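Repro:
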Amino acid sequence: MTNTSSKIGNHSADDQDDSEDVEPDPRHTVLDNYLSSGIDEEPSSLLNQSSSLGPSSCFMRLLQKQNLSPLLDSIRAILSSNREDEVISGELAEIIGFDEIDLVMDILQDRSTVAQELERLGSKEQFAHHLSQEEARRRMEKSFKENAARPLFSGTAEYEEVIVPPAKTVPPKASERLLPGKTDVAMLTILRVIDQHRSNSLDYSNVDIRVQLRSSIQKNAFKIIYVAPMKALASEIVRKLSDMQMTKAEIAQTQIIVTTPEKWDVVTRKPTGEGELAASLKLLIIDEVHLLNEERGAVIETIVARTLRQVSTYSHVVESSQSVIRIVGLSATLPNYMDVADFLCVSKYKGLFYFDSSFRPVPLEQHFLGIKGKAGSPQSKKNLDYVTYLKVSELVAQGHQVMVFVHARKDTVKSALALKETALAEGKSDDFSCEDHPQYAMFRRSIGESRNKEMKQLFDHGFGIHHAGMLRSDRNMMERMFEARAIKVLCCTATLAWGVNLPAHAVIIKGTQVYDSSKGSFVDLSVLDVLQVFGRAGRPGLESSGEGYICTTEDKLTHYLDAVTSQIPIESKFQGGLLDSLNAEIALGTVANINDAVRWLGYTYLFVRMRKNPFIYGVAREAASDDPQLGNKRHELVTFAAQKLADVRMIAFDRSTGAFTITDLGRIAAKYYIRYSSIEIFNKEFRQRMTEADVLGMLSMSTEFDQIQVRESEATELELLKERIPCDVKGGADSSQGKVNILLQGAISRETVEDFALVSDMAYAMQNGGRIVRALLEIAISKKWANVTAVLMGISKAIEKRLWPFDQPLKQFDLKADIFYGLQQWADDWSPAQLANLSAAELGKLVHLNERHGQALLDATKQFPAVTITYDLRPLGPDVLKISTRVKRVFSWSAKIHGTAEPFWLWIEDYQGLLILQLAHLIFRQVTDVLNVDFVISVPNGIPPPSVTIRYVSDRWMGAEDEVPIPLDSLVMPAASTSNTPLLHLPLLPTSSVIKDPFIAKAISRRVDHFNAIQTQTYWSIVNTQCNTLLCAPVGSGKSTLAHILIWQVLQ
């Protein structure tokens, strides 16, 4: 089944399948059969019982449609129901066909009459045919077909099996060209957008048509975004377009961008910079849109709602430019496609396409196996292993390839080894061997270069493994080997089904219990995952059939049989991500109050499903009927979410007006994609003074790492790694937080791990750790916490450079290993500045090498970003001090090493090192030698503190930092002035009575009714005397107003 939702008519094979149950003569219409039924009474007389003018025209048009006989009862039941026309119109269009939408509308206009005529037609046909010989024969044939289509039950002592035969396929038309899949349908929409943005027509007489095409495309006029749910799937799409990682400049020059939902969410959260991509967006393609049913579905709802609101908000711009943002949704497993079409704002009559399993290019036979034995018991596990082997060996013996899907990385190796051992024990190992493959020797050499011992061992016996914990090169090798049929059985995780288009004749799902880290327990494998895996069965163009097996416990057999065959509607998971999504919209400025939030929620799939299935979302029957648009429920949801955000200080929420204001904390969370639950933890753990161990401990508690779980098989290696890292880990390696902490420190220390699952977890921890630390750094800066800001800057660079703050800073240069070894052995305590004072010969001798090595080391020390800082103290008043700072560059610039800019931080901190008094972010460029910065700080009560400190920290280089203490003990601040004119307590003068000139009085009174206290006290002296006057007062005291009055007075 494929569902393509775009700016997404509906073609269904249901009517075709149903009509074939009673094979009518294709040369006759229903009307012909009706009129030749052999009943004495004339058809017109029967029909006239309901209408004096005879049967309605739309009724006669309905009877003229071929192959509609089996569907007339369904149409009659729909028309006779008490549902409104708007509700049943879609169902009628599905049955009759969207190409007959005019007939559907006519039937609805004459609904009661058509229903009565169909009722009388049904009773007449039953009377005429129920006892006829022909009808009896047809009933028997229909019964036989129904029995053949029913699931076939069988079983043994180990399992019970239910077989669902493949659906009867719809043969392609003779002129129809089959495309490989739904992705290629998306490519057609991409080509359409490109064609819409060409500047001129093509001259086909010119042979070089490709040059014309390239030059005619207006490349800056459009952007196309292809959203793929997983990185693996995104990589597959990118391979069809271009394989590259892009910088911001490259993104600006690119027309088609393949990304994950989370990355596109981050990009569109920014009003400027990358966020400008959304302004030129013309086509948004969302692959695997049925993931709305998963936890990550909340992100898909967020980006679609943001896109739809963008179109709605700037509709006048869209209309003037005659341009729209088109949304295309793709799915292979989407039961309630009408709901998703509503969510994507798809026309049900022009843009919705639905194809059921009868359109599958390779028919699929489904096997449901209920493994006997108590769930989780050793006997049940033993039966599961044996049944899996039984089915695999049968399929391999028939010459087929098989994929065995398991739900944990370690189970891929366990299952492959178990299958191999059982095959050896039963003497069937030759069936699995691929030694006669023509490319076997070449693949054998390739796999010999891998570090994965299990993979090499299994390959010799015809087995392979594939999971996300393996190196990308190893995964690619397994994919190539399986595609080339150099291995017969591939044990893998569901990542392969979602991310890589690698079909096999048969797929087997081994077990249905999946560990859910968010719940801390095992849950049932989702039906969407089952359908996605089954979608990999069958090799289009190579085989005429496919087989899908699901092995579950006996008590779950009925559940999966019903769920897969009936396909339960997908629901929204947006409530789980409502807090983060609302915060992002407030930070972006698209939601400013409760009313905006209520309207925003109306663009989500949650709103669509709340109206269709209110009880699941906590909406009472009375509330749903009294408030069809669920305004009260939406108001309740956004109010609750806003209050939760306000409680953790991510927003300011005024309950009286409903207004939202983003705070620094909320803005940072939205910018760095930090979850609300993580902000809760940071609020509790963040302190003014923290060590590196404290920061790493807090970082590891972030909920972004929830998916990293402790595995028993990793305990020994984690303990060994824990002994080699520098910072203490609270709780050890027994918790998820402890494991993350150990992996982060191990990665910074450049330690290697053997377990491939740990390799993947370490990469994930480093990738997300850098982002979260940057967020924590900005939070610390917003709070002006000096100590923890410096520590976080060090940790941020440590993760990026994989280098500790106490390591030799020169390790950031590309020097030979001998030089680093010499530095570590004989000059580890020397700073780059100290080394820079030596000659090349002295440096070579210091590290026990020659002068050539010393010169390389000297060049590195000269290029290490260092500065000298000088300052001047300039009191500006009794309680204000200006610190004029001069930062001079003292390193040699290299474009290869430094690029175009070297950013750094410069701040003044208090004498305790806790608070940042003032901060600046500065940039050195190649032409910059000196930067001058003025800091102005307050001196409360005119008493300066013992000292302050100027701190310099490079934004990129570990160890490139300096501090300059500024003693203030001997600083003498100016005394507070005692010459101020005392302000008298006088009644404020009304301008209308004081100013005698009516013109001036009228002009002044428009702005000021009464003079302020300073104006009242000085008015007489300034306006009515000839004395020279000096008036000194703060800004906004009304000095200019008095001067204007004086000027008008003189002119008069």
